[in-house]
Amino acid sequence: MPYVLLASGVLALLTAANAIRPRRGLVLLIPGFFAAWLTIELAPWVLTLEVLVTALLLSWGGLDGLPGWLGLAATVAGWAGLAVVMIRARRTTLTVREAGAELELDPGERAPAFPRSQVIIPFLMTRRRGVTRVRDIAYGDDPVMRLDVYKPSEPGGLRPGIMEVHGGAWLVGSKREQGIPLLNHLAANGWVGINVDYRLSPRVKFPDHLIDLKRAIRWYREHAEEHGADPDFLCVTGGSAGGHLAALVALTANVPDYQPGFTDVDTSVRAAVPFYGVYDMSGLLDRASRRFASFLERHVMGTTRADDPEAYDRASPVHWVREDAPPFLIVHGDLDTLVPVAQARSFTERLRRTSAAPVLYAEMKGAQHAFDLFPSYRAARVIEGTERFLTSVRRTERRQVTG
């Protein structure tokens, strides 16, 4: 049993160390990401489990010998590491508050709180009181082109809309698993959300993913009022590949090449909230392994950067930055091992130099990629901050209209 305690302690220590400083090497990139992501966002539950396992091993004679004592020391060191992880997560409140300090909101108004019960028991996130979900509405001819609508259960006036774009490296992912905590929270506070599935690579190549999302906007313009939404007010959000596409949606409004057969549709959006997105495709390839770069060129882009460098520019949100860009809230984790935080920093810098609209940036200290997939403490605070940002955009526009 002492050796079991030693193994358990070493595992606890390595898990905490990887969460504090995730592995970035090619061999351990993916397993290191998953281990860090789950440990960081589930740190209180990981700590509870480790305490229970350690207590059980101690009751079974785990300290009978030097290996057991070494195992206990490693376990305690791992717990100290988890404490660091949780302290970092608590800083999210301050980060979100600082990022949104200049929002057009009543200073005394409190943000609607995300349900504490869903933070404690994350699997409750699929339901939210006062929210109705309508599933699998077709917005195009392809069977994949389906969207879910999240809306307040109580009828009311026309409400603002938000489109969620799922991530998954342009290859996988679904509306059934991403964006749910955010859309539920927004719908509970007076928004109508659409969660969109689009065609994926390698079946299609860029820009087909973007064109599909423009088709979803066309559907929204035509059917928003049926679901109590304002057809003239739509924002966009998404994470990872979805963050990349959400930024492109916001920056390529009414570009004819991305609206074949429906160039007359207004595809502009009022604000964008990309999470840990890719903003410079060439920059991503520069830092990627040769194998990943080749995979992306072959299966997602359908051409190499050497053969068509302009295609990689057109696929990069940073290439489309313009003065009349809509307001942006850019969110990224500083420990992201899949999409370097430098992408978000440089994109924010370029937007702030060029755009006349507000550009907010929230860098999550100690956060990995995909930190908002389920409602952790950090994700809950970011979701609350996103609602504040979007509500501010909505109110600012209303003030400008009413004079």
TrEMBL record:
Domain of life: Bacteria
Species of provenance: Actinoallomurus bryophytorum
UniProt protein name: Acetyl esterase/lipase
Residue ranges occupied by any BD-FAE-like domain in the UniProt entry: 147-351
Keyword Kinase among UniProt keywords: no
GO molecular function, one term: hydrolase activity
Pfam families, sorted: BD-FAE
InterPro entries in the record: AB_hydrolase_fold, BD-FAE-like_dom, GDXG_lipolytic_enzyme
Keywords: Hydrolase, Membrane, Transmembrane, Transmembrane helix
Annotated transmembrane regions: 35-57, 69-87
